[in-house]
């Protein structure tokens, strides 16, 4: 269903200035609302009327999963930090003082995990190429400047640092020519992922300026768009004024011979239940695009097998492809949301065992860590030692992909850096350093720096 062109958008955003009034709906007392506002000085808050009015069950607060998905909680950060910030708010401290205290907390939350600013960004000489990441040989990530916000923010978002107004922590670009030039000099790149933020916050006319130049590149096989819009604002594809134009743009990408993959972020089955979400999914699929679904495993929101099996089955019946279960990344309020790896694998295994083979396209639980995407395959006993069995789904060094390795079993481990090697002195990816891109002038030569013969045998954790 597409409403006629020119229909009113009706989108209404809520930000931190609306937070206290929204929390009154939950019946929270003055002190608890103050402490939640204190957390919101550190981490970003943004939601919208669709999420607030149609997805949240306000009678089930504070346990409602969608409420916890978008509203900060008073205990998400260390108690001394929350108490200090709440005290500043209570005393009416100057905003500069509050922001300085908030920044101290942020800098302890690993705002850019997996070396995003240091290891993944291509460089020209000594200057980085902003808004672009090239972690894996065949894939380039691009962060469009106009897409550096979302229809609503997830409380566990690993890219929270993009949304807090710290210029030094942002990376984005509107230089499409630079992107195209870079791709031409890297013919091994076959896929571009637009991410952010959320690229679907952009209008059709702006999105077209990014997509159309790529359609002339024969090397590109796929264009991916990472988005939460199907969950947080499905009207984008149904009733927004440019909804029909957006779907026609998607169809033109497919007609150009590119695989258009919508990397849809669904965290809970309720996000797919509304008629407008169903209409949005159907509209996108009708263009020839593929929708692949992914989300992290998050404590208090979706940390049980029934939630995941329900999500995967629902996605399958709607025509989407279950793709990834991620592990909560080592950034932001990870201590609050993380599920230990051993429990994460149990949840994945039990959910996986309860769905049909068509749902078993999903992979996980996977950690997007510095060396690559590390999958926890299970727990085993080998030579009398209990171990995690792992492999790299994707890696900076392609030679490591798919090769199993082992870590000592630790029931409390929640991230790769919590693990220690088993049966070896170090993990396979610790035996060498990271392959580096040469400076741009050198890229004009005949060889691709990611060809196996020229990849330096070095990779760090």
Automatic annotation (TrEMBL):
Presence of keyword Membrane: no
Comp. bias intervals (Low complexity): 438-447
Keyword terms, alphabetized: 4Fe-4S, Iron, Iron-sulfur, Metal-binding, Pyridoxal phosphate, S-adenosyl-L-methionine
Keyword S-adenosyl-L-methionine: yes
Coiled coil: none
Required cofactor(s): pyridoxal 5'-phosphate
SUPFAM superfamilies, sorted: Radical SAM enzymes
Region of interest (Disordered), ranges: 438-461
InterPro entries xref list: Aldolase_TIM (IPR013785), Lys_aminomutase/Glu_NH3_mut (IPR003739), rSAM (IPR007197), rSAM_sf (IPR058240)
GO molecular function, a single term: 4 iron, 4 sulfur cluster binding
Cleavable signal peptide: none
Name recorded for this polypeptide: L-lysine 2,3-aminomutase
